[in-house]
Amino acid sequence: MSHSTDIRENISLHPFNTFHIDSTARFFTEISRIEHARALIESGKLSEVPFLLLGGGSNLLFTGNFKGIVVHIKNKGISIIEQAKDTVLVKVSAGENWHEFVLWCVNQGFGGLENLSLIPGNVGSCPIQNIGAYGVEVKDSFHSLEAIDLQTGELHVYASADCNFGYRDSIFKHELKGKVAIWSVTFLLKSNPQVHLEYGAIRQELAVMGIENPGIADVSQAVCNIRQSKLPDPRLLGNAGSFFKNPTVDQKFADKLLESFPRLVFYPLGEEKVKLAAGWLIEQCGWKGFREGDAGVHESQALVLVNYGNATGSNILTLAHRVQNSVYERFGVKLEMEVNVI
Ligand SMILES: Cc1cc2nc3c(=O)[nH]c(=O)nc-3n(C[C@H](O)[C@H](O)[C@H](O)COP(=O)(O)OP(=O)(O)OC[C@H]3O[C@@H](n4cnc5c(N)ncnc54)[C@H](O)[C@@H]3O)c2cc1C
Hints:
Blueprint: E1 8-12, E2 24-31, H1 34-43, H2 45-48, E3 51-54, E4 60-61, E5 66-73, E6 78-83, E7 87-93, H3 98-108, E8 132-133, E9 136-137, E10 142-149, E11 155-159, E12 180-190, H4 201-209, H5 216-230, E13 238-242, E14 248-250, H6 251-260, E15 266-269, E16 273-276, H7 278-284, E17 291-292, E18 295-297, E19 304-307, H8 313-331, E20 340-341
Flavin-adenine dinucleotide binds at residues 18, 52-60, 73, 94, 119-122, 124-126, 128-129, 131-133, 181-182, 231, 234, 239-241, 340.
């Protein structure tokens, strides 16, 4: 049986990126079955023109029209593959929406991902930058993933140790970038879960909700409440979440900074390193609430760059560079972008 791929031309990417940048893809195709992926590979298209794998488009900034082919990964399915006394292995297709999957886990009573509620995007992208929030990262519940080799079409399994997970980082941003398409992710979840409340605001929010002995559904709801009150909703205001990573520096460097900036916000990482709050650094440089044309820095969360309507990707990128330069001049700290600039 042949499985040809349906390749469309000159497709607007506006609905496919949460920054709402109005650019166009020269070619666009959707992949919902592995046969489609293999037919695309066999067609040779991926070596003829540049390609971009697309999930929910919530961690991307298009800075112009995309001259190659955008491959939208849309395979669906969630299955329990093994259940032990206290744990469960759940395999999820890359095209599933992340938050809907988290809610599915919460409804089943499977714990581990509830602190990651309401993060936009798809399951297939979650290992790429090892998504994290409220004291938890995806690697904490990650078991393995399947990825398609984009040269051969073969499926390979990557265990946690193969993925080189770090802070907003993995092998899929480096050696394997553009080489594989993540096709499914398997999670090791707890059927008798403990909740993680260490991250300050969660306890506070649960108290506001009047909950004394929270379960995972309460934690999920508390996280949703906090996120909704702090972060701009991309449906209403274009953005891709944190634009920059929180920079990691040596403790000695942080001590020096503290002499000049006693209110510096930082988190210790072991004994020798600290993570600086990028949002605080940006705010100190006066960017919070800045707007030029339709590109801006969010008024209550300086780490988030926003598109008020008709900003181009270049407008946003120019602003990002200005923010980086001023933070470097003031603090001597280089901010690295978290968002993928295309
Ligand atoms: C309001 C808001 C809040 C956010 N909060 C957080 C947060 O708290 N924590 C956090 O970590 N992130 C956060 N993010 C960032 C974003 O949600 C995550 O990075 C998410 O995992 C991106 O998923 P996506 O499907 O939208 O990826 P996309 O933007 O579609 O793609 C991201 C990158 O992954 C590649 N890619 C996509 N799918 C595949 C695949 N199947 N195989 C191989 N490569 C692929 C793309 O080519 C691209 O390079 C936030 C974003 C927004 C808009």
